[in-house]
Amino acid sequence: MDPNSLAAGLQALLRPGDHIWWGQATAEPLTLTRALVKHRHALARHGRLSVFVGIGQSDTLQPAQADVLDFFGYAASGPHRALARAGVLDIVPSHYSHLPGLIRQGTLRADVVLVQVSPPDKEGRYSMGLVHEYIPAALDRARVIIAEVNPEVPWTYGSRHLTVDEIDLLVDAAHAPISLERSAPGPAELAIAGHIAGWVEDGATLQMGIGNLPEAVVAALHDRRDLGLHSGAVGDGIAALAEAGVLTNARKNIDTGVGIGGILMGSERLRRWAHRNPQLQLRETSYTHHPEVLASIHKLTAINSAIEVDLTGQVNAEVAAGVYVGAVGGAVDFLRGAARSRGGLPIVALPATAKDASRIVAQLSGPVSTPRSDAGLIVTEHGVADLRGQTLSQRVRRMLDIAAPEHREDLERQAHALLCQCGAAFVAVAGTA
């Protein structure tokens, strides 16, 4: 379909006030999203349109487009931080696991869904390819489904496929899928990965957040056996573990022999491994993040990152320097699930400093994304603070031990005032700085 025909097709299908959804990050259907923003004035000629914003990996959305588009969403990562800084992104501070339910009950409107799909199989089924997450819920509620077929998108197994009868407009992709290449881990990330690897047992089931750090941890696990996968995000490191015979899913007590994910966030290597691979299934958020499912998985090892963690274990994963840069996401779901899992490990990992400022703090500079009651293992390059079952004063001592040495003395002084405010006994922590 030529660009003019695509614009006309969009114009015929969209209505004023429509709420538009598409796959986030690598699953963004670039042909459709770029046509949407290019022709936004014609498409919104009778009224504004709303766009749901997830994790960003492209420069498709820009603050200037707020002239006719309203942006709402749960994430402001990557290029989408520009929307937050410009004050044109209305944040939905919801747990990621709640999104499908909010869509299905109509609290979050989903009128139009733009999807990137694989070529159909011999039965005529278009695979969702790189993503499930909250998209099946949006598809179930949508008035209009517009799909672009991308020959570089893998045909993946999952709980939802599309047939041509469900699609209102079908176009050929004009762009390759977004690839997510990770940079080489630095010394701090390698040290953190080494600390975490020492806790991961054979037969553990992995959940990873996004970013370089989780990938560094995965790379440190090649000497393990029979690891499993149950995660929202799946990166290149998982493909490497599987190809090395380390990730077999053989010891999983549920979904035995099958790795479960919500979105493929990697490069062509990951897409190649996932293509027609029956040992991988993409599932909706209502399954990947379901509290009972997570709690039932033996040795669930949840590895997530943060912007900062305070001395009592509270986690801020949303705001840095006064700007919304993250999301509530699924960390709380996975940390709680891992805490209830038999042999599970709820882990939050982060470098001890950023731009010479401590990321272990006495008081958070942003919201509490994960409460201290859900804190498990906090890991920096300086070690592991196991906060499970610890009192406030015990937590302070352990957190000081993993803070950067140059910040420990100042943190210890602040800790005294912090514990007094909490009404807790301050147990001397001399010698920890």
From TrEMBL:
Any GO BP: acetate metabolic process
Protein name as it appears in the record: 4-hydroxybutyrate coenzyme A transferase
Domain of life of the native organism: Bacteria
Entry keyword annotation includes Cell cycle: no
Keyword Iron assigned: no
Acetyl-CoA hydrolase/transferase N-terminal domain ranges (all copies): 13-172
Pfam families for the chain: AcetylCoA_hyd_C, AcetylCoA_hydro
SUPFAM superfamilies named among the record's database cross-references: NagB/RpiA/CoA transferase-like
Domain spans labelled Acetyl-CoA hydrolase/transferase C-terminal: 266-415
Keywords, ordered alphabetically: Transferase
Protein family membership: Belongs to the acetyl-CoA hydrolase/transferase family.
Molecular-function GO terms, alphabetical: acetate CoA-transferase activity
